[in-house]
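debug: dumping io for the single-chain case to check the tokenizer round-trip. Nothing else runs in this session.
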Amino acid sequence: MTSRYRILAASAVVATGSAIALATHAAQAQAPVLGGGARSAVADSSCRLDAVAAAPTGRDSRWVEMWRSNPASQKPAATARALAAPGAVTAAEAVPGAGLKVAGAPAAAARMSYARAAASTGDDVAEGIVAPDRCVWLVTVKAAFTPRSAPYGATPVRYDSYTTVFDVATGQFLSITAGTTAPDVLNGANIAS
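debug: decoded output
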């Protein structure tokens, strides 16, 4: 069983963890960044920090407003500071529903295109809220995760790990996935090519 949660509005922007300029960050070839001494099985792949999703057409005004208000849909501000991998890992460890992190628990981040991350998590890149070639961090944390909600009458399931997606350019939280089919950056399981 897999649980997927998405936040498409701009309600959960995390603090950026790096003063690296966007242009410099985009030009660097970064190795996967790790927590708890873990090693990532997923290499960073090409993407663009400044990729912008096309304005939605044929959608109602709420959809257009969601696109307009989502930092991950827009060109990053000139003063934006890119979210570095250690910041992405820290943000993933702090998501609602995550249990108390055990000191040294394995965690890893890999930079990739939103299209690759969406194919791995089951998100729908065709929704057009985030550009397919936009850089995101896919972060796996090996720590307890219990979703904050469950269907009426169902008991929330506790998972042993979870994977989050963050926009690199803005730090915007995009989605979280847990369960047997969730992507795992630590061992490379369920990662789209």
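debug: round-trip ok. The chain has one domain: 2-179.
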